[in-house]
Amino acid sequence: MRICIAGRFAFPWYEEACARALESLGHLVLRHSWSRRMSSLSGCLESRLSILGPSSRGTLRDVASLVRRERPDVILLWRATQFDAHAVRQIRAAGDCPVISYNNDDPFSPAYRDGTLGLRRLWRNFLGAIPTYDMNFVFRPVNVDEYLSAGAKRVNVLLPYFMPEVHRPVALSEKDLQEFGCDAVFVGHYEEDGRVEKLAALVRAGMRLRIFGNGWPFEAIHRIDPNLAPPRSALGDQYAKALCGAKLCLSFLSKLNRDTYTRRSFEIPACGKLMLSERTRSLETMFSEDHEAVFFSSTEELVSKAQEWVTDDTRRETVARAGLDRCWSGGHDVLSRMRGMMMLCEKELGLNSR
Fold it and tell me: Domain 174-329 classified CATH 3.40.50.150?
């Protein structure tokens, strides 16, 4: 099948990971990146405020031209905040084929609705275009009914995944251990949702903590531990090493997006490490508690669980191995996700290769 994927292609774990998985499944993937146009000054403004301007119009022309020329069987638009309903209809007409959407953010989150002007306007075009897509794929179950209420024809959940070539157990050198070795690690973004207080509590309990990721204010790091090094990003092999250098790998869930799981929920166990995550019903159905992952519901429980598991190497490694097995047996890899996505498209949209 000929599949066109159009998006920013800014991070290798999003559009490109899915494109490669689809190619591994035997599909021909046509890629279009609108990163250059939409990263310009006008493009950023248009994306943030849902304004139809020169960058958005140029992107629309680019995508329409590609699908008119290449005639794909289906078009996937990845987080297309700049396209309104009219734009989606133009793209469909250009390709004479179904157009589907995937969005890993939560456009119905109260944090966007009640936030700044930029946050309130961010999803205006996208929300208006929801009924125009032939199918919408969403990140979280809470969005399914919200999309349907907004007029969506079809809505399915596309869970996050791990990338086997990146998220896997790695052996660390002595130099790596000096850089990444610790009791507990958190690799992820800053959010003012209580994670700072939880990390600070671990430090007070005597845990050797490391943090990697972007967007961490100096003030937040100082609250956690004045002696903590400023966090830096950890991508690719550095990400796997950051996880594999820790005894416990922490997972916090974004309240902005109302997450009940995240990419780390699969990346951490896929690296063969014990995941110590915020507890949710979703995660409890995916991983057996204290057998494949460890969960906490409060700061006190986090500290207690961390102290319990950090010293028991045998038990910790047994659970970590079981979590790794669950990632594979549960089909949480990107190839399995793309196989499932295409099965839904073929079933619900009646897709046939041309």
Answer: no
CA distance 101 to 123: 14
Q: What integer pLDDT is reported at residue 242 of this predicted model?
A: 97
324 pLDDT band (50/70/90 cuts)?
very high
pLDDT band of 54, cuts 50, 70, 90: very high
Strand duo 74-78 + 99-103: pairing: parallel
Query: 3-state class of 289 per DSSP?
Result: strand
Looking up tokens 């190497």, which residue turns up? 313
Q: Place domain 2-161+333-349 in its CATH homologous superfamily.
A: Glycogen Phosphorylase B; (3.40.50.2000)
| pLDDT tens per residue across span 187-209 | 999 988 899 999 999 999 999 99
**2-161+333-349 and 174-329 have identical folds:** yes
Alpha carbons 156 and 159: distance in angstroms, whole number: 10
323 touches 248 (CB < 8 A): no
Q: In what order do the strands lie in the sheet with 74-78?
A: 28-33, 2-7, 74-78, 99-103, 135-138, 155-157
Domain locations along the chain:
2-161+333-349, 174-329
User: Tokens 């146009």 identify what position?
Assistant: 37
Global pTM reads 0.93
